[in-house]
Amino acid sequence: MYSKEEIIKILSSNDDSILKKADETRKQYVGNDIHLRGLIEFSNYCNRTCYYCGLRYKNKNIERYRLSPEDIINTANYAKRLGLKTIVLQSGEDVFFSNKTLCKIIEEIKKLDVALTLSIGEKTYEEYKSFKDAGADRYLLRIETTDKNLYKVLHPNMSYENRIECLYNLKSLGYETGTGCLVGLPEQTIESLADDILFFKELDADMIGIGPFIPHPNTPLGDFKINLKKNFDLSIKVMALIRILLKDINIPATTAMETINPNGQIIALQSGANVIMPNITNDEYKTKYNIYPNKQNQDILITKEKIYSIGRTISDNKGFRCK
Ligand code: 5AD
Question: Which of 13, 33, 241, 252 is the most exposed place for a label (fewest CB within 10 A)?
Fold first, then answer.
């Protein structure tokens, strides 16, 4: 176990030997199999105004879309035909979908004998419970940053405490719980990234997604200048440390990593990651799910080739965390 000081030292130094160490930990604890999760981005409507995100409702420069429940279920069927064993339903915080509709969609998808992950934001305990009762297995809700002041600035009208409570509610309901953070946000310090990592350990998260922050032009942070290489390298290091500390969890090579480095996912898979989330949303819609610019949607065939090219295998099971 690393102390906060050690984590800060590793993140601040030029030494990247922990990447290799994370790769070894990955191999020892979760093996060579990569789990593919079929991502369906079913609505880009959002009632939040997060400073970094292109889906924020104040962004008028975006064409909004929403899949019908039938289209969502059809896309899930397509995922099943592709051989995917997990389906991830992701959207902005869209109030259009009632609890009842969401539960119906969950029940239909679960008939396909797949694992189902939701990534639809903050909900009440009762809502999380109803999704779980309907059959949902996992939930993704990034904390984004554990720096309370930064959290407050970036998320108007939201509460850090409520987000933490959501995560503990998800855990207590028996979801495999995923969280994660952005790396390279304005004013974000190495020290706060160390706190993020220690928070993931304390929560004992089952999945962690780490993404470099990529400025979106139609957001308040659009003009913020980032150093792509520095952000990428730091994200990979944060991810590697998480692998070393949480050992047996599932960690995706994220789309944001691939977006700022053409070799990003392969580097991630060789530095601790064991999951890829190919985007199976219909082409007409996935180009409109612009959280950040130039999002590299992962095509499933290209993804598979990449996996084989580095001598890894594709899992034939649902890919739950094996503690
Ligand atoms: N750059 C990188 N990642 C972003 N996200 C939102 N906006 C951006 C951005 N500009 C991430 C958030 C969210 C996930 C779905 O996308 O971390 O949880």
Answer: 13
Find how far residue 311's CA is from the centre of its chain.
24
Q: Tens digits of per-residue pLDDT, 277-300?
A: 999 999 999 999 999 999 988 789
255-276 residues labelled b (16+ CB within 10 A) or e (exposed): bbbbbbbeebbbbbbbbbbbbb
Q: In this structure, which residue's CA is closest to atom 13 in ligand 1? A: 142
Atom of ligand 1 nearest to the CA of 209: 17
Token pair for 217: 């032009």
Count Cα atoms within 13 angstroms, Cβ side, for 173.
24
Percent helix, percent strand, percent coil in the chain, to nearest 5: 40, 15, 45
Q: Are 169 and 125 in contact (CB under 8 A)?
A: yes
* pLDDT tens sequence across 79-98: 999 999 999 999 999 999 99
DSSP letter at 88 equals E
Instruction: Answer whether 213 contacts ligand 1 (Cβ < 6 A).
Output: yes
Can you list the residues of the chain whose pLDDT is less than 50?
none
Tell me the whole-structure pTM to 2 decimals.
Answer: 0.98
Residue 182 CA to ligand 1 center (angstroms) comes to: 7
Handedness of CA 71, 72, 76, 82 (dihedral sign): positive
Compute φ and ψ for 4, nearest 5 degrees. -60, -40
